[in-house]
Amino acid sequence: MDTQEKVMNHYDASDIQVLEGLEAVRKRPGMYIGTTDVKGLHHLVWEIVDNAIDEALAGYCHNIEVVINKDNSITVKDDGRGIPVDVHPKTGISTVETVYTVLHAGGKFGGGGYKVSGGLHGVGASVVNALSRWVEVTVYKNGKIHKVRFENGGHTVEPLHVIGDCSENRTGTTVTFKPDPNIFDTDIYDYETLKVRVRELAFLNKGLSINIRDDRDLEDTTGETFLYEGGISEYVRFINQEKTPIHNNIIHLSGEKDGVFFEVAMQYNTSYNTNIYSFVNNINTHDGGTHEDGVKRALSRVINNYARKTNILKEKDENLKEDDVKEGLTMIISCKHPNPQFEGQTKGRLGNSEVRALADSVFAEGFDRFLLENPDEAKIIVNKAILARNARMAAKRAREATRKSDLAVTNFFGKLSDCKSKDPSVSEIFIVEGDSAGGSAKKGRDSMTQAILPLRGKILNVEKARMDKALGNEEIKTIITAFGTGIGEYFDLSKLRYDKIIIMTDADVDGSHIRVLLLTLFYRFFRPIVEAGHVYAAQPPLYRITHGKTRKYVLNDEELASYLATLPDNIRSKAEIARMKGLGEMDADELNETTMDIEKRVLRKITIDDCVAADSVFERLMGDEVEPRRRFIEENARKVKNLDV
Ligand code: 0RA
Predict the structure, then answer these.
(1) Which of 167, 201, 479, 565 is surrounded by the most beta carbons within 10 Å?
(2) Ligand 1 lined by 173 (C-beta under 6 Å)
(3) What's the pLDDT tens digit per position in 291-300?
(4) Does the CB atom of residue 50 touch ligand 1 within 6 A?
């Protein structure tokens, strides 16, 4: 035992248990907060903020402030009723001290609102205390300012005492804690991380004002305040800010049954993506659950009923599917439940079955009324779903068409110069960047076994385009037809027409962009071809060394150095070293000799990992360019409209 406690002299035998409890948290912090990395460090903030939010849900707290202090300690201040300061009958010490030192005491003293009971959340203030260098709690209540201080993982060094007076009607709780650097890998808080979640909490709890401030930043004196009277409607508007909504109103529906509160907000945009985020007691249920299921079920049903009633969907038409009515949908679902059951490996799924019916009925009744009362918007929404269905069916037809790998009857040759051999085991296809390199490759190839497909510019970005669009792209069509395997549910590896698919691009930025696009295409449409080891990257040389009649090509600087080292001094001094600028610069013989000749070339096999890496490069490429991406989406949306109606 610590000497400090003995000095304080207000503990009895039961408190030994208390300290053993906190010691257990320090021994196995992962059990209580998941990890001790930067994520766990931030988790401490949410434990404390959650308590203040509970007080807000109970209706007593309206303002919360979160401050990152200069020393990377955190202050969370609320204007709720203040944690009770009277002596707790079970422990014989103040309730506030009990809450901070008894493991899992939080729930018993909770505001009686929607206390979170799943996942890693809600383990309470005592866990934060156990994992902190020091904690100070100040309570404003009954005209007095009360303070308690803990150190070194929850040892009380100043039991609760009054440090001054305040006005009778001032109430609230202020907590400051400094995470223990012996527990955490890092002790530096990230403002952006805290801000994003604080903003989300403000969206999820309408009318609650949350201010966040970074006192390490000398220029940040006021911080940012998040307050949304519209709640999750404003969340939807916020998400759709970077997109183009197709109707003005954000649909916001809510209902309550047996103490379970359910609400949903939604709006469609022109994109093909679905953004549905669901929450239970402010926790993101990333694997969905009964609240999400109920809404999705009702969404398809209500739209189909409406489309039939209004004859937009004719008797002969088949029903719209869930995927059709979800296209371009941004939706926030929020459920506040007194006793949520979280399921699944990561506890990311709501299990309570009664919520399915509640979600279904609240959504169905409200959405049906919305469609009836807003016929213009209803028409836009239904037509969007019908476009999605048409596209889905067109994509299916296109996939069926690609089953027929007979090149003669399809018109998808494009610029392919096929090889003469029909024996896949000796055939290869070079996918070449640019017409000029394509021309050299055609001249320099062995036309018996080597096919050439030149790509002009950048092929379509399949990540962002809908399947039917991708399948309409000339170069992708040519690739699909040339490979012979078909795609999607009709894919058949045994029909592959080439043993080797060789990507031949320059070692510059454009070349790498094309490579990334091709790998993404393969990853999405032809994964088994990659997995079976049929995809390669050609390796054009970087240097040409000429001396006398001898020409030597090397792939990189190391090879250059080691080759030069083999030459006698008199030859080396006269050798001419040229840096190859690109495929287009090489003539047919040179290209053949260095990059295509089966005897001399060097190929690098492409793995699934390469494709996965390409996929993430892709995200970065696209992620940073909001404006071009927006233009792309808008242009395609326009084209689809012209095509299908
Ligand atoms: C239970 C009862 C009362 C207040 C609280 C809990 C409370 C807890 C926290 C945690 C952070 N901020 C908080 N604010 C309030 C009030 C009991 C009474 O009316 O005295």
Answers:
(1) 479
(2) yes
(3) 999 999 999 9
(4) no
